[in-house]
Amino acid sequence: MQNYQIQPVGFIQSPYKQKFAIPRQPRLVPQAKAKLVFCGDFNREEFVRGIEEFTHLWLLFRFHETADKGYSALVRPPRLGGNERKGVFATRATFRPNGIGMSAVKLEGVEYKNAQLALLLSGIDLLDGTPIVDIKPYLPYSDAMIDASAGFADTRPETLMTVSFSEQAEQFIAKQTRYPELKEFIINILKQDPRPAYKKQKQQTQFYGMSLYEFNIRWQVDGEHNQVIEITRE
After folding, report:
1. pLDDT tens for residues 185-233?
2. Which residues partner with 233 through β-bridges?
3. Lower CB density within 10 Å: C or N end of the chain?
4. Cα-Cα-Cα-Cα dihedral of 155, 161, 165, 169, to 10°?
């Protein structure tokens, strides 16, 4: 068997600083903005010439935080409540051979400042620092198969979760001006209900936290309601 070496073409600068609370698929949270910063020999405008003609891109990336943990032939998809096993190749699970993932994202623009090339993206589901190994244009006539079926993941994940904010959280959001979509961003993340599947069966009030941009966000879950109780700077 022949082995291959793959080098990153760039790295993602993402608001998601930890795996917890990242949407499980791309474009579920359109407010998730990111940069793909090119590195090494790929930091040249020639590599992206004409890319603005496309509205969306495929990103091939490496699950860099879990790739060294190996893979499993059978995994427990969150969409099935974590109670049923499926073959890893029948899922988009993280723990997979070669640790390669793919994500369809929206291209917002191309940036070239101070000799640094970057793509501006939205709707991402990638951890900060994720290495990108390839980029391909999304082709609607070929990639969007409207008659396709998707088994246990045939519909967009939806929940009945609602979201409210404490007075402190509301004031914090109002005072910061760098991220005008911060409140809507948080709402859409929490509506996805990022809790582990086994936690969703518990009835007691639960407390969680996540790092988003340079903020620490704490919230509590009571039934089908999330309340953001505190936002602070890291």
Report:
1. 999 999 999 988 778 877 789 999 999 999 999 999 999 999 999 999 9
2. 215
3. N
4. -50
